[in-house]
Design a protein that fits this description.
This protein is of the alpha+beta class. The chain has three domains: 2-109, no CATH class; 127-255, Jelly Rolls (Sandwich), CATH 2.60.120.310; 264-420, Jelly Rolls (Sandwich), CATH 2.60.120. The protein contains six helices and 23 strands. Helix 2 crosses helix 5 and helix 4 packs antiparallel against helix 5 (88-99). The radius of gyration is 23 Å and the shape is globular.
């Protein structure tokens, strides 16, 4: 009853005759223009009334279906920073505006259009790492997944307070994942990669997708960048109909403050994936008990093309269920790394569980095979994975070794077995 009353109140707040200038522009500017402007990856701009008026029906359709803005977590199963989800009243506002003729209204009521930067968000970086040669992106064909290994001039250990990925051609860069590798294992400077990057990096730095800016590390938890590290960047390129080039850069911002907290990847994953052709509801599960109290600060899910659903939760002592993530329609093209709006306290002995569901039937439009074929675990495009990685900070840092032993024990138990937990598959 309360939910119905709230929905009714929200609907009543929508203007009977909405206009672009007064009502719709604030929603578009905040939620759409960041990707939909010249030079970005979106195929058309949404910055002026003329831009939006020309795509009005399409905007109403894709927002009603929640295809746009791209945001995968289901509402009510965790609160995340920077959510790109439109509210039901906002969706109804756009629908009503379009149904009534997409009226412009009084231009004097138009809010200031968003300004877009063409330089570093946080000012001049302390270190800029640039790929030596531009990447040629073909005009057509499948998306390109490329890994780059670039040396960094880091003669001593530094502490990262922020990092920013800066593509030169945002129209073709779909997303990027960044790592630092101090292993010195020989690897070519550029190679195709999908799923995994082929190295076990010592440090996951973060990711970038259109509309996102610099990655700011948590207070007191600046990750250490070891001397002699290499930058490993996995870039997803999307052909846009004509030959393109991209020559990306990464800016690092350092601090002299050594970390007093450490973000630990509490990873759950499974290799027990063997999906018969035609199977429409194939389920895999995994679990891990955290032996110490931690604050969950973010979550990184990962699967490939035919995964449909992924869920993660914790059962805390006493039996209460704490949701960590719920994605009901996974789309590999919109994978992201999610940071919680506020840390989630998980007491010692909390049981973290995950459940992934796959659809390997002909009815799945994202199935790469027609007719469907057997799919097993693996790093390839047509293989599958299942992993959810809870970014966690020990409540008491002196207990970190106990958590490390528990995670390492899970890895050891998985040797020769059917699952592993630990470093995230990317």
């Amino acid at each position: 009853m309360i939910a119905l009353l709230l929905a009714a109140a929200a609907a009543a707040s929508i203007p009977a005759h909405p206009t672009f200038s007064r009502d719709v522009a604030p929603v578009i500017f905040k939620n759409c223009s960041g990707c939909h402007h010249d030079g970005e990856v979106a195929p058309f701009p949404l910055v002026t009334y003329a831009d939006v008026r020309g795509k009005a029906k399409l905007i109403a359709d894709v927002t009603r279906s929640r295809l746009m803005p791209p945001w995968q977590p289901v509402a009510g199963y965790g609160h995340f920073a920077g959510e790109r989800r439109l509210s039901e009243p906002q969706i109804e506002l756009i629908r009503r505006w379009v149904a009534q003729g997409a009226v412009e209204g009084d231009a004097r009521q138009l809010p200031r259009p968003p300004a877009f930067r063409d330089d570093w968000e946080l000012g001049k970086p302390d270190l800029v790492v640039e790929v030596p040669e531009p990447m040629d992106v073909p005009a057509e064909g499948p998306d390109v997944y490329q890994c780059f290994v670039v040396p960094m001039d880091v003669p001593r250990e530094r502490y990262i307070r922020a990092v920013e990925f800066f593509p030169s051609n945002r129209r073709v860069v779909h997303h990027a994942l960044l790592f630092a590798d101090s292993s010195r294992i020989a690897r070519e400077p550029r190679y195709p990669c999908f799923g995994t990057i082929g190295l076990l990096p010592s440090l996951g730095i973060g990711g970038w997708s259109p509309g996102n800016g610099a990655i700011r590390m948590l207070d007191g938890a600046a990750p250490p960048l070891q001397a002699g590290s290499r930058l490993v960047a996995q870039i997803h390129y999307h052909p846009d109909g004509k030959p393109e080039q991209d020559k990306w850069r990464v800016g690092f911002y350092f601090t002299d403050q050594a970390p007093v907290r450490r973000v630990v990847d509490v990873g759950l994953a499974t290799r027990a994936i063997d999906i018969p052709a035609g199977e429409s509801h194939y389920v895999v599960r995994q679990h891990f008990t955290v032996p110490i109290a931690v604050d969950a600060v973010g979550v990184i899910p990962h699967a490939h093309l035919i995964c449909k659903e992924m869920r993660a939760w914790a059962i805390v002592p006493g039996g209460r269920k704490q949701w960590l993530l719920n994605i009901a329609d996974w789309n590999f093209n919109w994978q992201d790394q999610y940071r919680y709006a506020a840390p989630i306290r998980l007491p010692a002995d909390s049981l973290i569980e995950m459940e992934f569901v796959y659809d390997n039937s002909a009815a799945n439009p994202r199935n790469p095979h027609s007719p469907p074929q057997r799919v097993v675990w693996g790093p390839g495009t047509d293989d599958e994975m299942a992993g959810v990685h809870i970014q966690s900070i020990p409540v008491h840092m002196d207990e970190l070794p106990e958590l490390g032993r528990a995670l390492w024990g899970a890895v050891m138990r998985s040797v020769g077995g059917r699952f592993y937990t630990g470093a995230p598959p990317q």
